[in-house]
Structures are given as structure tokens and as C-alpha cells.
Write a structure and sequence with these properties.
Largest sheet: 7 strands, mixed
Number of domains: 3
Number of helices: 13
Structural class: alpha/beta
Low-confidence stretches: none
Distance between the termini: 67 Å
Helix content: 25-40%
Number of strands: 22
CATH topology of the largest domain: FAD/NAD(P)-binding domain
CATH class of the largest domain: Alpha Beta
Length: 468
């Protein structure tokens, strides 16, 4: 059948734009559909990129206030212009979105703005913001519509006093206090931003530890770090309801003992995760099904029940991470081309962009115990690193988990300066099956944060740490 395009990608986030670019590189005629008037998806517009812009800015402000004085640097009349703080973030977002638009033009990808909805497995109707409609056909479709903030029973988001991370990234004025429901990645990152600039922050978390999906030692250490920012973490608490009281938000919850408690703040930020976004896709006009969590069902090749339609990223099962979506995008396009691409979900790292950063890949120690896998552990603190002492970045540690049989790296967990970059060494080791002994023997530049990894590897294989 003659079609308008070889591949149409629905959604322009990291999964979508990477899929479109890789398809164009492989010679396909490609279009990308985006319901908003800006490219880049959640990550670029209201997620990863703007959050990092605020995290970095707030970190600089906090360092000037509390860190540089001991280095002999004196700053007088320090103040924060909150409107410029937010405006600078908007500029970063625009620059990144413009970059995506440039790549679409460079790779001769047709951009179609509007909401894409399947009429059948070969046709998509695109409804623009002005109500005009256009129908396109394609041989293949890739659904990359991402996710949106989730909520819990009793909590209704009004985007005024009870907000999500989307609104928290674009506030008009700095709040004096915030209650954050959820101590996962989004919750602790937003807590860091606002606590550093002087907002009173309280986290209410259902689990008995922060960042509960990661290794528990990371959560315990992170709580100590956040305590230094005067962030209060109330753990093992079950939120019952929220209410907009006009000038403040009120949160009612059961504490760890099951006793009802109430807390009020200028804002309540709901950070309990995200849910797949499939609204308006017209899936009912296809054979595509959803699982119990609203995710699009796919096979191991990320193909839906329609043989010519694939789905990637937050809208399918797995961790909701931009780089996971990017890997799936390349995997799907190269599969369509007839290749045999590689995708290893076990070596996809997770990162929390607090300071110090938290990163993790592979099995946690709890998972190894649960699976009854024999392992050895190497752990080394940043406090013992000469580079960390020079920079006054003393918090955190590296933990290596390796097979007790042959030293294969089973997992690595880091909380410390630049851990988001350091974790990649573990990814490489795991992908190419390099053991802890070999990773400990290679040369690391001195003085660097990476030497903390070397010492953790040496501890794991039984050689013992050698650096300071």
C-alpha cells in the first residue's frame, strides 16, 4: 500500500525524537507528531532539563551561602531574584527545544503539530490546536507519548495550592513552605531546589525510606544529606487527603503509628510518580491493548498487537527514564530496518540529581539477598578521597556488589559528587563482563572522584583500598 510516510512517530520527547532521527539516518521517510507547539516532550519542557537548570542554579546559590566562605571567598549582599531564577530555566528549555527542531530540519523529518489519533492501524488523524484536521498514512508507527504526573486517592491536583512538578518548575513567586507528597526521585529533587533557596520543605513518604526503589543504603545516606538542608522527612506515612484552604494547602495523613496528623504549607507538591499518557490516541480503533497499569502492551521487540505499530518509553512497561526511551527508540527503528539490535534493561542506570548526586545500576543488595545470590561487597567513602576533600564534597560512598564466584559486577550504587557520570563505569563493566579485579587494576587519574570507584572495586575483590 502506498503511504505518506515510512514511519510516523507520535510524541517528540527523547524517545520520539531519537526514533525519528535514527529512522531518517537509516533512509526512512519520517514524520513526527507533537500535540503541543514545542518539541522535546516532558523531558525537555517540564521534566529533566528544566529541573536540572533549577537544581544547578540552587546549588550555586547554596554553595555561595554555605561553602565558599571556608575557601576564603567572601560575598556580600547575596540575594536571590526568584523571577530571574525561573526565567533562566525557561531560556534553557527554549534552547534545548530549538535544538530538537533543528535536528528535525537537518534530517528532513516532517513535523506535524496536533493530537494524533489512530483511525485504524495505517491511518492517523492529526487535530491541530485551531481545530483543523489532517490524515496521514504510514507503513509503521511508533507511539512515544510519554507520561504525566500521577496522584493518589484523596488528593486532587488543582494546580494552584496543590500542584505537580510541572507547576513547581514555573512558580511566579517563591513559597515560604512546601509539603511534598512522595520521597522518590522527583520529590527529593524538588525538595533540594526549594530548600537550598530558603523554602521550608517537608517530605511525606509512604515507605520507610527515601528513594525506596533504590538500594536502601542510598536512601539512608540521602536522608542525612537532606537533613543538612533542614528538609524534614516524615516516613512510613499514609496521606489521606489534601485541601486548598485559600492561602495555604492542608495535608492530612496517618503517621508511622497510625495517628492522624495535619500539616499546612503555602503549597503541596504531589510527587507520587507518573502514569502513561494514552489519552486521545484512538487505541480503541486498533487491536492495541493496555495492561493493568494503563501501559501499552508490547512483545519483547516492543511491537503492539498491531504488527506495524510499536511503543516505547514511559508508555510501556519498565522504568520511566528518558535514556531508557532513547535506547528503545534506536532498538525499534533498527529492528524495523531488519537488524538485530541489543537492549539490556538490567544495565540502564538511574540517577537522582540532588547534591551529592545518587546513582544506581544493576541489582540492589536487597535484591541479591532475596534471590539468594552469593555476592561480595566493596564500599568506599568520598570522605577518604583527596579530590573530594579539595572540593569540600565529603558526603557519600560507592558500593560495588560483585559475584562471589567470579567477580562479575552485579550492581553499583553511588551517592557522592558527580555520581551521575561515575556510574557509567559500572555500566561498561556490566555490559562487557569486566570483573571487580580487572576494574580495580586499571589506571585512574589522580586526584579525581573516580578513584573512589577504584578503591571500591579493590575492596570488593579483596585487594584493599590504596588511594587517598
Amino acid at each position: 500500500m502506498q503511504t505518506d510516510f515510512d514511519i510516523v512517530v507520535i510524541g517528540s520527547g527523547p524517545g520520539g525524537y531519537v526514533a525519528a532521527i535514527r529512522a531518517a539516518q537509516l533512509g526512512f521517510k519520517v514524520a513526527i507528531v507533537e500535540r503541543y507547539n514545542i518539541l522535546g516532550g516532558t523531558c525537555t519542557v517540564v521534566g529533566c532539563i528544566p529541573a536540572k537548570a533549577l537544581l544547578d542554579a540552587s546549588e550555586h546559590y547554596h554553595d555561595i551561602q554555605h561553602k565558599v566562605g571556608k575557601m576564603g571567598i567572601s560575598v556580600e549582599n547575596l540575594n536571590l531574584d526568584f523571577s530571574r531564577f525561573i526565567e533562566r530555566k525557561a531560556g534553557v528549555v527554549k534552547s534545548n527545544s530549538d535544538g530538537v527542531s533543528y535536528l528535525m530540519r537537518k534530517n528532513k523529518i516532517t513535523t506535524l503539530f496536533g493530537t494524533g489519533s489512530f483511525l485504524n492501524c495505517n491511518q492517523v488523524k492529526i487535530t491541530a490546536s485551531d481545530g483543523s484536521e489532517k490524515t496521514v498514512t504510514a507503513t509503521y508507527f511508533i507511539i512515544a507519548t510519554g507520561s504525566k504526573p500521577a496522584t493518589i486517592p484523596g488528593v486532587e491536583i488543582d494546580k494552584q495550592r496543590i500542584i505537580t512538578s510541572t507547576e513547581a518548575l514555573s512558580l511566579k513567586e517563591q513559597p515560604q513552605s512546601i509539603v511534598i507528597i512522595g520521597g522518590g526521585i522527583i520529590g527529593v529533587e524538588m525538595a533540594s531546589v526549594y530548600a537550598r533557596i530558603g523554602t521550608k520543605v517537608t517530605i511525606i513518604e509512604y515507605a520507610d525510606i527515601l528513594i525506596p526503589t533504590m538500594d536502601r543504603e542510598l536512601g539512608r545516606e540521602l536522608q542525612k544529606v537532606l537533613n543538612k538542608l533542614n528538609i524534614e522527612s516524615r516516613l512510613s506515612c499514609r496521606v489521606q487527603s489534601t485541601a486548598n484552604k485559600g492561602v495555604q494547602a492542608e495535608v492530612t495523613y496517618l503517621d508511622a503509628a497510625g495517628v492522624p496528623q495535619t500539616i499546612s504549607a503555602d503549597l503541596c507538591l504531589v510527587a507520587v510518580g507518573r502514569k502513561p499518557y494514552t489519552t486521545g490516541l484512538g487505541l480503541e480503533n486498533t487491536k492495541i491493548g493496555l495492561d493493568e497499569r494503563g501501559r501499552i502492551k508490547t512483545d519483547e521487540r516492543l511491537r503492539t498487537a498491531e504488527v506495524n505499530i510499536f511503543a516505547i518509553g514511559d508508555v510501556v512497561a519498565g522504568v520511566m527514564l528518558a535514556h531508557k526511551a532513547e535506547e528503545e527508540a534506536t532498538f525499534v527503528v533498527e529492528s524495523i530496518k531488519g537488524g538485530n539490535p541489543h537492549l539490556n534493561y538490567h544495565t540502564i542506570p538511574s540517577v537522582v540529581y540532588t547534591w551529592p548526586e545518587v546513582s544506581s545500576v544493576g541489582y540492589t543488595e536487597e535484591q541479591l539477598k532475596e534471590k539468594n545470590i552469593a555476592y561480595r561487597k566493596g564500599k568506599f567513602p568520598f570522605l577518604a578521597s583527596g579530590r573530594a576533600r579539595a572540593a569540600d564534597d565529603l558526603d557519600g560512598f560507592v558500593k560495588v556488589l560483585a559475584s562471589d564466584r567470579d567477580g562479575e559486577i552485579l550492581g553499583m550504587h553511588i551517592i557522592g559528587a558527580r555520581s551521575a557520570d561515575l556510574i557509567q563505569q559500572a555500566v561498561i563493566a556490566m555490559e562487557f563482563e569486566i570483573g571487580d579485579t580487572e576494574m580495580g587494576k586499571i589506571c585512574y587519574p589522580h586526584p579525581t572522584y573516580s578513584e573512589v570507584l577504584k578503591d571500591a572495586f579493590l575492596e570488593s575483590c579483596g585487594c584493599g583500598a590504596i588511594n587517598i
